[in-house]
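This part of the workshop introduces the protein records we will be handling. As an example, a complete record with its sequence and its structure tokens follows.
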Amino acid sequence: MARLNPTDLELFERGVLVRLANVDAGYGAATVLLGVDFEARAGEVALVTGPAAAGKTTLTHLLRLALPSRSGRALIMGVDVARANGRQLAEVKRKIGYVAETPTFIEHWSAFDNIAMPLRMLGKKPRDYAEDVRELVDFVGIGEAADLAMEKLSGAERRRAAIARALAAKPHLILADDPTAGMSPADGRRVVKLLAEMRRVGAGVVIASQDESLAECAPMDVWRIDRGRVAKAAAPLEAEAQE
């Protein structure tokens, strides 16, 4: 097994979940991310915003290990991704929860069973996870729809179910790619507030969206991406609604 760098592991233990340094990434002949420096920490929320086709989704794919970097250094959960072996990468992936822009489900399964899927994949039995999943269902506000087939849920309920599923395995890092797409402003803000609540239990949250106003939903750092280049806002935007 490839040896992990003690210094990298120490960063992770100190709460640095992601550190990208001068990273390029892309697809085929196209380079989409250029010299990216980015950091995500436990207990904090980062909003990555920018115009369409700026590279937000590519950054999300990079962070969830669905896309390799081409250059630079990508350190995720204390692991140098370029140097890690398959087992180490699989362990990193287990620490990441992902909410896709268009979540997919097993439509004839209930919301409860879809949310429990990550736990079933870990080999857990219903008696071991039923209580935890019910708590998640209540947390995201779809208690009355939990036993309905996914095909019967509204768009907002499906998005909440996707969040619950991403949280089921208690990840260190939660990634959400355009989580408010197709939702009303009120429902979108509720979804972002749900995601941001996870900072209270020590998780790091990265939200990619074109909507800069989402920074008003909760305390978060704002990063702007344009034409593949990322820059952190001069100072975190303060949430309008203080808790």
Observations:
- Confidence is low (pLDDT under 50) at residues 236-243.
- The two ends are 46 Å apart (CA to CA).
- DSSP finds seven helices and ten strands in the chain.
